Amino acid sequence: MADTARAYFDTVFGMAGEPARRAREFAGKVREDLRAGSESARSGAQRLREHGGRTAHDVRRLIRAELDNGLTRMGVATQADLDDLNLRLEHSEEQIRELRVRLAEAEARAAAPKPAPSQTGSDDEGDA
Predict the structure, then answer these.
(1) What pLDDT shows up at residue 99?
(2) Does the reported pTM lie above 0.85?
(3) What residues have CB less than 8 Å from 11, skipping those under 6 apart?
(4) Which of 53, 78, 69, 72 is nearest to 8 (CA)?
């Protein structure tokens, strides 16, 4: 268990290299904006909001990937697996509906009475 925890720790901190650099650069820009005045502080706050949103998205993506990998290793279906199965199920249901319609049409044609052959030639002979 400790090895697994260490592997996750190393993975997360290994991926944090670029975001950490961006965070340091961002902190420097915010510091400069705060020194420049209120309008710059507003733009700094906006950048902080954007940076926070990107970071949250990155963390969410990392967590989702790790959960999917863990679930796959345990043999549990992921959301992507379920989505694929749902698409296949919907396609199969549509095919079944079409086949039922075709079957009903074929049964109706088979049950329809066939017209009797005309006996016009035999009617003429009876009059003579």
Answers:
(1) 97
(2) no
(3) 66
(4) 69
Is there a contact between 33 and 43 (Cβ–Cβ < 8 Å)?
yes
* Amino acid (1-letter code) at residue 10: D
Residues 6+ apart with CB under 8 A from 66: 8, 11
Written as six digits, the tokens of 113 are: 């009475």
Nearest 5 degrees, angle CA 112-CA 114-CA 118? 155
Residue 101 has pLDDT above 90, yes or no: yes
Residue 52 Cα distances to 14, 55, 83, 101, angstroms: 19, 5, 30, 55
- Residue 22 burial class via C-beta count within 10 angstroms: exposed 0-12, middle 13-18, buried 19 and up: middle
Q: What share of the chain is helix, strand, coil (3-state, %, to 5)?
A: 90, 0, 10
Backbone angles phi, psi at 113, to 5 degrees: -65, 140
**Residues 78 and 72 sit within 8 Å (Cβ to Cβ):** yes
Rounded to whole angstroms, the Cα distance separating 111 from 16 reads: 72
